[in-house]
Design a protein that fits this description.
Blueprint (H helix, E strand, L loop, with lengths): L3 E6 L7 H15 L3 E6 L13 H5 L8 H9 L3 E7 L7 H9 L12 E8 L8 H12 L5 E9 L12 H10 L3
Parallel strand pairs: 1-2, 1-3, 3-4, 4-5
Helix pairs in contact: 1-6
Length: 180
């Protein structure tokens, strides 16, 4: 059975390494028969959350920018994939800002249950991504019934294109292909 998959690519570099993994994951998910959409945050205008909590009452954010459209897509997707470069052992500021701005989801019924993470770090050790995983788990804990189904750890990649030729590209494809 086909699933609706939303990939939220949070790298500020459109041709960055995490976005390259996104492309392979998306290809695998499409090849498995799923409907896949990629939102590149570098192409969007997303302002910081003001902490007003009006979204809990209104079911949408009062700030009029691209975050409301993405939040609505999140609400209606069965699978959400977060993709981020790792900065100082954590997710990018762009990812954290989108997570904060999706706070309206806390007060609504959502379709998503399966969550995936794609992360790239300059450091060679996979533990460099642990802080990102822990932070994402905090978001998962706020959405009952969600589960972190898989993590792609692209390590030892810093400059654009450093991911090319690495086995992690195939791993991303194969993980995407498991979605059904």
């Amino acid at each position: 059975m086909s699933k609706k998959v939303l990939i939220i690519a949070t790298s500020p570099r459109k041709q960055g390494n995490s976005n390259r993994l996104v492309q392979e994951f998306a290809k695998g998910a499409k090849d498995a028969g799923n409907e896949v959409e990629i939102e590149y945050l570098c192409d969007k205008t997303i302002n910081f959350c003001k902490g007003c909590l009006a979204c809990q009452r209104l079911k949408k954010c009062v700030i009029e920018d691209d975050a409301n459209e993405i939040t609505e897509k999140m609400r209606n997707s069965e699978v959400i994939v977060w993709a981020t470069p790792v900065y100082y052992y954590n997710m990018s500021g762009q990812m954290k800002t989108m997570i904060d701005r999706s706070n309206a989801l806390f007060a609504t019924v959502n379709k998503f249950k399966d969550i995936y993470l794609i992360a790239c770090a300059a450091e060679n050790n996979e533990s460099a991504i642990d802080g990102t995983i822990d932070s994402l788990k905090g978001w998962l804990d706020c959405h009952s019934g969600t589960i972190l189904k898989g993590v792609i750890k692209g390590v030892g990649v810093d400059n654009v294109g450093a991911i090319e030729g690495k086995p992690i590209l195939k791993e991303a494809y194969l993980l995407g292909k498991t979605i059904s």
